[in-house]
From TrEMBL:
Protein family per UniProt: Belongs to the RNase PH family.
Gene: rph
Database matches in Pfam families: RNase_PH, RNase_PH_C
Identification of the protein by name: Ribonuclease PH
Xref: HAMAP family: RNase_PH
Self-association state and partner proteins as the record states: Homohexameric ring arranged as a trimer of dimers.
Gene3D superfamilies xrefs: GHMP Kinase, N-terminal domain (3.30.230.70)
EC numbers on record: 2.7.7.56
Organism: Aliiroseovarius sediminilitoris
Swiss-Prot/TrEMBL catalytic activity: tRNA(n+1) + phosphate = tRNA(n) + a ribonucleoside 5'-diphosphate
Length: 236
């Protein structure tokens, strides 16, 4: 029995509210159970120096957790003068994932920055950030298309991510914090349509078989299909 009472292949409730901020070209609040992440996409008519005059655009991402997004207050990273290794790893993952689903030539010489701020954390924050980040990105690109600043849609299939793991000896979908903290095996699966972008799998205090890996992949496919349905509904 899972702590939440969910079935092994059951996602937490998913909701995506769009246009939640006034100034960002694209924004949403994604809620996956008790994990809530604010995602915004900002357009800039410039690119990093290494892409100037290349005809290609760029997409980058930043990630952060608010001090009381967790059970006890965390110190702001700005107060220590640097980002932690976990933050850097996650925002690079978000950037890589979203870039895999966009044609940077069709985007033109402009940059989109996707910011993901965790308001409340209960497991799976990086997966929610990727999923919500794509929604914010979709809305920002829609504005470029509407204004005829670009003529070809640079976005390919939706990009979404979900966590899976082995909890109490059983493969389970969409780990919340009580499961994530106890799982012998856990992983994050990032997909763009039917194709994999990235899989992060690790075992701690346990091991997993090839058959279990295949079961986790099947669970990830099911979870991502539900997330994509929510993304498409939110973006119209």
């Amino acid at each position: 029995m899972r702590p939440s009472g969910r079935n092994l292949d059951q996602m937490r409730p998913i909701s995506i509210e769009t246009e939640v901020t006034k100034h960002a070209e694209g924004s949403c609040m994604i809620k996956v159970g008790d994990t809530h992440v604010l995602c915004t996409a900002s357009l800039e008519e410039r690119v990093p120096p290494f892409l100037r005059n290349s005809g290609k655009g760029w997409l980058t991402a930043e990630y952060g957790m608010l001090p009381r997004s967790t059970g006890s207050r965390m110190r702001r990273e700005a107060a220590s003068g640097k980002q932690g290794g976990r933050t850097v790893e996650i925002q690079r993952l978000i950037g890589r994932s979203l870039r895999a689903g966009i044609d940077l030539v069709a985007l033109g010489e402009r940059q989109i920055t996707v910011d993901c701020d965790v308001i409340q954390a209960d497991g799976g924050t990086r997966c929610a950030a990727i999923t919500g980040g794509w929604v914010a990105l979709r809305l920002a690109v829609n504005k470029l298309l509407k204004a005829k600043d670009i003529t070809t849609d640079p976005l390919m299939d939706p990009v979404a991510a979900v966590s899976c793991g082995v909890y109490a000896g059983q493969p389970v979908l969409d780990l919340d914090y009580p499961e994530d903290s106890e799982a012998g095996v856990d992983g994050n699966f990032v997909l763009c349509g039917p194709k994999l972008i990235e899989v992060q799998m690790s075992a701690e205090g346990s091991t997993f078989t090839r058959d279990q890996m295949n079961e986790l992949m099947d669970l990830a496919d099911k979870g991502v299909s539900e997330l994509v349905a929510a993304q498409l509904e939110a973006t119209g």
